[in-house]
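WSCD1 protein
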Amino acid sequence: MAKAFFRLQKFLRRTQFLLFFLTAAYLMAGSLLLLQRTRLVIQQGSRGTSANQALPVPEGMAGVGIADPRTLQNPRPSPRLLVGMDAMQEPALDQQHGPRWLVSRNSELRQLRRRWFHRFISDQEPMQTAGFKAMKHTAEHQGTYVGCFSDDSRERTLKGAVFYDLRKMTVSHCQEACAERAYTYAGLAYGAECYCGNTLPATTSKPEECNSECKGEKGSVCGGVNRLSVYRVEELRAGARRRRNVIYRGCFRAPENLTDTFPASLIQPNLTVEMCSEFCSKKEFPLAVIRGRECYCGFPTGHFSLHDGADGQLCSGTHNASSAAQGKYCLVYQTPVQDTRCTDRKFLTTKSKVFVALSSFPGAGNTWARHLIEHATGYYTGSYYFDGALYNKGFKGEKDHWRSRRTICVKTHESGKTEIEMFDSAILLIRNPFKSLMAEFNRKYAGHLGYATDRNWKSKEWPDFVNSYASWWASHVLDWLRYGKHLLVVHYEDLKQNLIPKLREMVEFLNMTVTEDRLLCVENNRDGNFKRSGAKQKDFEPFTQEMKDLINRYILTVDEALRGRNFTGLPREYVPR
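Predicted structure tokens:
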């Protein structure tokens, strides 16, 4: 009996050990399978790029499938450049005397930049409310609560300025944001949205219908579904007035009939810029126009576009009654109020038949171009990625699936045959690579609106970044020129200098029509929320001579490729440098 019991005990021990071993083996096999699938997905993402797509590089770097950044850092002085698009499609027959090739994309570099891109998108989440933090008041809820109101997105009353923050919206943040821009009322909705204006909504609602908790403040109510918690922020305006920006736009020839051109006016014997600006801000107009004792408020229009400025000396006496009698010139100021004629946006009501990409190298102004397109067309733009910071800034297309076709176009930094041929057409935005590299490096370390520190620029990250990303700038353009089906090439510098003509060209490419007044509204709001803040070093030059030589070679190649496809070449300011 004891012997049988001993055998049973021995068997159970062996079984227990066997079960433990099988469990461990199962977990290890599952982990290996997961890693293998992840690797396969990454390889499949890289498979769309042609292995033969190449860039001109120094001779010492050719002949390999993966470009070594250390080789990129030390180019030899006499590179052979690839000229024209035909040569780009044919292999070199003479390795000694023909053009050398650098593979424009490889899995290692692709993974590196994707990892950088997505990692720093996620790192920006804590930074995305920096604008609100700067406006934080010492005392909470100083505004007067007015009540709960219905919110109709099609006929919104509080539409002067709009802010989003899905993580840290509070009542005081919204109040301060509206007060800084000279608005009287601040309304909160959905726990995360802030609206500003000077007129109360018409329809009141039951207090209990405003039941959404503020995302950044437990226990506080920030509106509800189609409901606004409205506060009067008049009490905050005195303290916030010091921070308001009234921008001098210049001296202009006055229209023949000012009362027909401008909807509101004021005559004051001792008129000052502050008095006129305050008056126009209360009326929710972005322009304050002064002619002698007369103050006019309105928008830029076809009759008064602010495109043809006059000599400032002609306006030097416009505050005097004697010069006012002449009435030929006027002073124009930009009030803190936002031009609301082009702020309404929505998703397409029907799926777009043409799948359009807004393609650029990172740092080339893609976000700014989206801002311009959205405000010009009235439709959201989509994104191949998801950036929470941009969503909080009002780019609601960030959360929409990039293939939904509910957006007017889709942002992408991708290149390669497969990624490009998914789109029916594309706006290809190109920017000076020196500026693009600096902009992307700033975004990497300081978000969309900040600047990298001196420590960042002087670290080893900067030369590594240039070596890895400079070739991507060129290969991105070459890939889209080679595989793109229908392209509109837009140079960032041209768009910045001639905004309305270039923006009209982009809108027509998207098969949309817009009014002249709407385009003037976009021009009046051209910066949006995307102008970098903080100290910027003057005459800052982070590029070494080796970096300049390398980038200049890529510039020449892209210029040749553009001309080979009958596009306008790169702006003259790109090269030489």
